[in-house]
Amino acid sequence: MKTGRRKGAAALSGVLLFSMLASACQSGGTTETASETGGSVSKDGFPIVEEPITLSVFSPSADMAPWDTMPVIQEMEKLSNIKVEFQTAPIDSFPTKKNLVFASGDLPDMLYAADITPAEQVSYGTQGQLVPLEDLIDNYAPNLKKILDENPNVRKSITTTDGHIYALPFIDTTAVWYRGPMWYNGEFLEKLGVEEPKTTDELYAYLKKVKTEDPNGNGKADEIPLTSVKLDDLRMYFLGFWGMYNEVYYADKDGKVHYTPQEEGYKGYLTFLNKLWNEDLLDHETFSQTDEQKKAKGAKNQLALFSDYYPYFTLGGTEETMQDPMMTPVASEIAGTPVYGKHPGMSSNGNFAITVTNPNPEASMRWIDYQYGYDGATLWTQGPRGKMWDYVDEATHEKKFLDVPGGGDREEYRATLTPNYGIVTPGVNIPELTNGLRSEVEDWVVKQNEEKLVPIAKIPFPNVYLTNDAQTEVSALLSDMNTYVEQMEAKFVTGQEPMSNWDSYVAQLKKMGSDRIVEIYQEAYDQWNSENAQ
Predict the structure, then answer these.
(1) Is 190 within 8 Å of 184 (Cβ atoms)?
(2) In this predicted structure, what is the pLDDT of residue 38?
(3) Domain limits at 332?
(4) What is the CATH number of the domain that holds 94?
(5) Domain boundary among 434, 468, 496
(6) Which of 101-110, 113-122, 304-313, 463-472 has the lowest average pLDDT?
(7) Are residues 87 and 194 in the same domain?
(8) Residue at which a domain ends, from 375, 406, 434
(9) Residue 217: burial class (beta carbons within 10 Å; 0-12, 13-18, 19+)
């Protein structure tokens, strides 16, 4: 399975769980403000500036094609009258290059898909290297302003502690998953005559049957009831069985903040996985295998329960398979379970910013705002009309895919049309973008989400900004604590550390500052919640 194709399919899976925002239309042509080099800047419509201007952009790149050769970039320049000169760095080295750019003071005009962390937004914003965006949004970003007005939580969540917005996110209020969910091998369920488990006890009993009753029918005891890669792919899902919404910290339904690794529910999670490990129901290669090795087991029809964006990514076969159901989260002994930690509907890090050296901030805001409406989101995610897609019915936005030139992979072809490939970009997900393009299995996944996850889902914690001092303290504390928790999780699950040592483990966490983490985030949550209620 090609990585690009998997990414594209996964991106479609979060669509249409709730009604999404209508896009703001691109029409008119009111002009008001003069840019330094391009004359007046239009508040709506195209071109954005009367006279051509050039702006520089710094961004990561998947390096599938030079950005300046891409049809999307060429079309955007025609529409806007803004030529963009791209300075790109490979994804892996981009964080280091980004830090060097800020340290040098030789800033580009804009940063695109730049993964600007909340701490970086506060730091570079308060140092005066990033331009506050709130006034530009209100005056030069009709699409984005409409979204923020209709979703005040999003505006609140991109506003820093000094009251400014320094970076823009990718917004998807339909999103459900933080990462791929769990899936059952439907063939195994059918052969064993088992309905989907509803409790942890029923789940254990089912995994036991998988181990002992040869559901793949090859006469060998080679079935693996539950597999994982270092628990990273199942942890979030399983924690919900014991009432926890996230892996590190979360706010419960009453607004009380919890540090997950010291909760009683976390002890229940570890105890259950240790039981599965001891009875060889959890893959004993969990802590050593790669994702590719996990998928090789799936291709040999050995796996009963696993995580991925789509089941066929692991089991192989065709995309149009709906026989392998999404796992319904199961209830434990803890009251009120299961729960599910829902995606907050926006990227936690900033994907677009304007620097203080930019001579045309108004034009820059208009340029990026196009991606927050239907027409711009379509252009930047799917390429220009007539390349990869065309309309079946333009009035309803129903589209169809066109044949890929030379019969190649569609996602790899898309990567030559637009920079929006392999990176988290600014913009918005609107369900209408994929009208007519979604496969039957993608619509089925949406239905699975609505039935199994959405009713028990809650955003674990809002996107909040800490003060510089608080952020520094939290980063230092969590750096050591995360390492300790990861090591102890593996030891508890594999039995290297007996569960009888739970109390001493919690005592060590408290000594390392776990209660301080709760205190800092409780204060941040209460502040966010009180401001949000105003």
Answers:
(1) no
(2) 52
(3) 179-341+454-533
(4) 3.40.190.10
(5) 434
(6) 463-472
(7) no
(8) 434
(9) exposed
Q: Which residues 6+ apart lie within 8 Å of 533 measured at CB?
A: none
Whether 133 maps to a domain, the answer reads yes
Can you tell me the distance from the alpha carbon of 333 to that of 246, in angstroms, rounded to the nearest whole number? 19
> ∠134-139-141 over CA atoms, to 5°?
80
Q: Is residue 38 part of a domain?
A: no
If asked whether residues 384 and 318 sit together in one domain, one would say: no
DSSP H helical ranges for 110-263:
118-126, 134-140, 142-150, 152-157, 186-192, 200-212, 235-239
Rounded Cα gap, residues 418 and 74, in angstroms = 10
The domain total for the chain is 2
Q: Is 37 a domain residue?
A: no
Distance from C-alpha of 4 to C-alpha of 2, rounded to nearest angstrom: 6
Distance, CA of 79 to CA of 131 (rounded, Å): 25
- CB-CB neighbours of 459 under 10 Å: 17
Each residue of 39-61: pLDDT tens digit? 689 998 999 999 999 999 999 98
Q: Which two tokens stand for residue 427?
A: 């913009």
Cα–Cα distance for residue pair 387/410, rounded to 1 Å: 11
d(C-alpha 317, C-alpha 1), whole Å: 10
21-30, 328-337, 425-434, 512-521: the lowest-pLDDT one: 21-30
- Higher-scoring residue by pLDDT: 463, 348: 463
In this predicted structure, what is the pLDDT of residue 20?
A: 27
Nearest residue to 167 via CA among 131, 141, 138: 131
Same domain, 196 and 337: yes
First-to-last CA distance in the chain?
49
Share of the chain above pLDDT 90, in %: 76
Report d(CA 345, CA 87) in Å as an integer. Answer: 29
Per the model's pLDDT, the better-predicted residue between 39 and 141 turns out to be 141
Amino acid at residue number 84: V
Give backbone dihedrals phi and psi of 294, rounded to 5 degrees, phi first: -60, -45
By DSSP bridging, strand 31-35 and strand 39-42 are antiparallel
As to burial, measured by CB atoms within 10 angstroms (0-12 exposed, 13-18 middle, 19+ buried), residue 520 is buried
Q: What pLDDT is attached to residue 532?
A: 53
Q: Are the beta carbons of 435 and 130 closer than 8 angstroms? A: no
Helix (H, G, I), strand (E, B) or coil at 326: strand
Q: Does residue 45 sit within a domain?
A: no
| Alpha carbon separation from 400 to 11, 371, 443 (Å, rounded) | 17, 21, 16
For 183-219, what is each residue's pLDDT tens digit?
A: 999 999 999 999 999 999 999 999 999 999 999 999 9
Q: Are residues 169 and 99 in the same domain?
A: yes
Does 432 have pLDDT greater than 50? yes
pLDDT band with cut points at 50, 70 and 90 for residue 360 = very high
- In the predicted model, is pLDDT for residue 435 greater than 70? yes
Q: Does residue 63 sit in the same domain as residue 125?
A: yes
